[in-house]
């Protein structure tokens, strides 16, 4: 678990969807005994032509937040009101608060904000963020006890898995890896007979099993290996396949890296997932 001195940061517009994000942020702050910063940005863009004084906005927000303060009296929450661009304000608040996790939603007061969160701005925040981003996709109550991590066994994927375990040390983890094998017909065209093709495929299976064992051995497991389940199958990785496996595993959170092979599908999975998504850019070094 991350040190309690590093707070959580939640960006919200206090729309109905924004209140769902807030509820999950307060619950996480309570469970992990962390301070919570609540960021609201009043846009000074074409989408928000009417500028209201920050003091008035803050007063209105404090009133709207009263039910949360009442339900979670043990959470030390601080409201931050900013005017400007959403993306820039969020990145600035991350630095200002030294937060350990950012929570955002996928829709706001209108379709324009929805396009913001699911579009290029959201991608830029994720890729610019120095901390993991938890994107809330649903209203389900969850303590994130079952986490699904697609992996290519790369160093960056290893870092993402360990980061996830660090954030949620009591979770059960499903690691999902797809083994890509050349088609038999193509191998036959290269002159391999059936026995050689079978041996080649078996070698790939053995190599994948060895990589999986090495990957799991390097995980920093606060609760032991019994909480890790390895799922491997032959095929081609896709967002559709990943989400199908998430459903089968009954996971309540997907953890994605934005570097490595899986990164090609990360935004598709984020956009299509009915489950909340933890996403972060890790370096392979």
TrEMBL record:
Protein name: UspA domain-containing protein
Pfam families xrefs: Usp
Family: Belongs to the universal stress protein A family.
PANTHER family, per the entry: STRESS RESPONSE PROTEIN NHAX (PTHR46268), UNIVERSAL STRESS PROTEIN HP_0031 (PTHR46268:SF15)
Annotated UspA domain residues: 8-137
């Amino acid at each position: 678990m991350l040190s309690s001195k590093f707070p959580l940061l939640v960006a919200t517009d206090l729309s109905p969807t924004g209140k769902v994000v807030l509820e999950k942020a307060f619950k996480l702050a309570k469970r992990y005994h962390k301070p919570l910063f609540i960021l609201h940005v009043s846009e000074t863009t074409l989408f928000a032509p009417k500028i209201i004084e920050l003091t008035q906005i803050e007063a209105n927000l404090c009133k709207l937040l009263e039910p949360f303060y009442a339900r979670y009296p043990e959470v030390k929450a601080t409201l931050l009101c900013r005017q400007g661009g959403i993306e820039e304000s969020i990145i600035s608040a991350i630095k200002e608060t030294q937060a350990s996790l950012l929570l955002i939603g996928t829709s706001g007061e209108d379709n324009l904000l929805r396009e913001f969160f699911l579009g290029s701005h959201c991608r830029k925040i994720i890729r610019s963020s120095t901390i993991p981003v938890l994107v809330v996709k649903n209203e389900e109550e969850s303590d994130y006890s079952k986490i699904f991590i697609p992996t290519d066994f790369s160093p960056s994927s290893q870092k993402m898995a360990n980061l996830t375990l660090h954030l949620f040390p009591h979770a059960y983890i499903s690691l999902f890896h797809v083994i890509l094998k050349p088609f038999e017909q193509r191998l036959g065209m290269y002159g391999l007979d059936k026995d050689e093709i079978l041996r080649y495929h078996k070698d790939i299976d053995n190599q994948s099993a060895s990589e999986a064992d090495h990957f799991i051995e390097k995980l920093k497991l606060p609760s032991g290996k019994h909480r890790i389940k390895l799922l491997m199958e032959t095929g081609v990785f896709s967002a559709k396949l990943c989400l199908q496996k998430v459903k089968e595993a009954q996971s309540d959170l997907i953890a994605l890296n934005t570097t490595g092979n899986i990164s090609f599908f990360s935004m598709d999975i984020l956009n299509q997932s009915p489950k909340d998504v933890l996403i972060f850019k890790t370096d392979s070094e």
